[in-house]
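Work Package 4 report. The design task specified in the project plan requires that, given a folded chain encoded as C-alpha cells, an amino acid be chosen for each position. We show below one input record used in the internal validation round.
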C-alpha cells in the first residue's frame, strides 16, 4: 500500500476548499497518495484525519497571523486566514503526538516554527532592508532565483545533498527566532533562514517551493521521495 499523505486545503471565497495542484502532483510522482484535509475540521475531526494518513504536507499560502507569536501586524501583513492557522496548528501538534512525519513548504515552514514557540519576520523588505530579494517576479514559478546553502549533517542534506543550490523564492516572511528543539538546515547568503528541521528530521520545513521545481529539476523531487519513504516506514 502506498502511504497516504494529507495536504491541508484552505477555504477560497466561501465556495470551495483548495490546495495547489503542484503539491498533489509532487506527492503522486514521489509514490504517495494525496488526501486533501479541509481546514473546517475541528479538534476531534482533526485527530481522526491525522490518524488516517501516514504523513502531513503543509503547503504555502497566506501570511500567518502575528498575534500567534505575540505581535501586532505590520501594514505589509494584509492577507491572513485565522481558520487555517488554527487548523494547521492543531494538525501539527496531533501529527507530532502520533509520530507522523511533516513536510512544510513556505508558509508551512513558518507555521511549524510558530507551532513550537518561534517567531517570524513579518515583512523582510521593511524589517531587513539589507536582505536580498526573496519574492521573485517571474512568469514561471519553476524559474531558479537565488542561492541557498544546505547545511551538512541534516535531514535536508541527506535528501538534497550538501552545499549550494539555486531555488525559486516567493515569500516576504521568514523565521526570526527559531523554535526550541529545531535547527537551521538551510540559509541564503544574506542569512535568512530557508530551512528548519527537528532533531530527528521527522519535521522538515523549507522556505522555497520545491513542488514547482521538481518536474523541471529532478533534484528537488528527492525531497518528496525522502518524505514519502519516511511516511511509508512509519509503524
Amino acid at each position: 500500500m502506498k502511504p497516504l499523505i494529507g495536504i491541508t486545503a484552505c477555504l477560497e471565497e466561501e465556495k470551495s476548499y483548495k490546495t495547489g495542484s503542484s503539491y498533489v502532483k509532487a506527492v503522486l510522482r514521489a509514490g504517495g497518495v494525496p488526501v486533501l484535509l479541509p481546514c473546517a475540521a475541528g479538534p476531534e475531526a482533526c485527530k481522526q484525519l491525522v490518524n488516517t494518513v501516514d504523513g502531513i504536507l503543509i503547503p504555502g499560502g497566506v501570511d500567518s497571523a502575528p498575534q500567534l507569536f505575540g505581535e501586532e501586524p505590520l501594514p505589509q501583513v494584509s492577507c491572513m486566514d485565522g481558520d487555517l492557522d488554527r487548523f494547521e496548528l492543531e494538525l501539527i501538534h496531533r501529527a507530532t503526538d502520533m509520530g507522523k512525519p511533516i513536510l512544510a513548504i513556505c508558509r508551512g515552514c513558518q507555521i511549524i516554527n510558530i507551532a513550537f514557540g518561534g517567531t517570524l519576520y513579518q515583512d523582510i523588505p521593511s524589517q531587513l532592508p539589507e536582505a536580498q530579494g526573496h519574492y521573485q517576479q517571474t512568469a514561471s514559478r519553476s524559474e531558479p532565483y537565488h542561492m541557498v546553502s544546505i547545511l551538512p549533517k541534516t535531514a535536508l542534506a541527506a535528501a538534497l545533498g550538501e552545499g549550494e543550490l539555486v531555488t525559486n523564492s516567493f515569500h516576504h516572511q521568514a523565521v526570526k527566532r527559531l523554535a526550541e528543539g529545531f535547527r537551521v538546515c538551510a540559509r541564503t547568503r544574506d542569512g535568512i533562514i530557508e530551512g528548519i528541521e527537528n532533531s530527528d528530521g521527522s519535521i522538515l520545513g523549507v522556505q522555497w517551493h520545491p513542488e514547482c521545481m521538481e518536474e523541471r529539476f529532478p533534484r528537488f523531487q528527492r525531497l518528496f521521495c525522502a518524505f514519502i519513504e519516511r511516511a511509508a516506514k512509519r509503524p
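Residues 59 and 105 are 5 Å apart (CA to CA). Validation will be extended to a larger panel in the next phase.
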